[in-house]
Amino acid sequence: MITYKEAGVNIKEGYEAVKKIKSHAKKTMSSLVLNSIGSFASMVEIPKGYKNPVIVSGTDGVGTKLEIAFAMNKYDTFGIDCVAMCVNDILCHGAKPLFFLDYIACGKLNANVASDIVKGVSDGCLISGCSLVGGETAEMPGFYKDGEYDIAGFSVGVVEKDKIINGKDIKEGDALIGISSSGPHSNGYSLIRKIVDNLHVELEGEKLGDILLTPTKIYVKPVLKILEKFEIKGMAHITGGGFVENIPRMIPKGYSAKINKNSYEVPSIFKYLMEKGVGEEHAYNTFNMGIGFVLCVEDDLKEKVVKELSLMGEKAYVIGTIISGGDGICLE
């Protein structure tokens, strides 16, 4: 008789992983969650007070940033990236994240490593104010290498129907406000890994590997506060495709974003990557270049919004304006 363990799947290690994971998930539970981890499905109430609530969902992963984590033997932060990539996306439409689920896959499960990964997910949920209500951990021997893990996530949020942000009212002369990123976030790492051959090189007193593992910034709480005070016409999360692909996604046809590249200081990590051979045009089409989230507002509100973000501890800049015509974006 052959057992599952002999086939490469350790059921007892899986039970131990679930036991450790539950403690991290418990920290994130809100009163809207109707059951606990371990059921076949999760149940979450829509918060009271919505007249016509719309459910907004998004899913994403972390990509090859994971290879940096494996090389640095650090597993407890990229769960934050996974949450950030999802909740920042649904935030673009004005949605408040309610809950999150994760999917973790590996070749050989280590309960302590799985716990570290979910700790990061839990931290990301706490930062964004949503509940970690469930997930899946899949041990697939022979499919993934031992010591390597993959992660993806799924987030669900809610927004009042008449408060959905979709860019439809954006017009010429509106201002674009950029909120600083914490680094490359979770995009462009296939290129980064190709040009960076030593993660222990120091840049401004910090190991390059540690800089590259800085978690993706979660913009949920400051942006939701901004939405309570100001009319925001459009929002963009600067992910894969950088400025070039993401900013135009919030702008109606017939208009473009005119970006002033000198409106803020590009962080050292991006300058370093360009020094290693990435051309400027390609950099703006791959990385966030120091701006992780963009808001579009009426021109007369721009300084007020920047000041409000500043009071919340966010570095924000007026980085451009909306113009008629063009190809979606103009970098100057």
Automatic annotation (TrEMBL):
Coiled coil: none annotated. CDD domains: PurM. It comes from Clostridium putrefaciens. It is found in: Cytoplasm. This is Phosphoribosylformylglycinamidine cyclo-ligase. Pathway: Purine metabolism; IMP biosynthesis via de novo pathway; 5-amino-1-(5-phospho-D-ribosyl)imidazole from N(2)-formyl-N(1)-(5-phospho-D-ribosyl)glycinamide: step 2/2. It catalyses: 2-formamido-N(1)-(5-O-phospho-beta-D-ribosyl)acetamidine + ATP = 5-amino-1-(5-phospho-beta-D-ribosyl)imidazole + ADP + phosphate + H(+). It is an enzyme of class 6 (ligase). Belongs to the AIR synthase family.
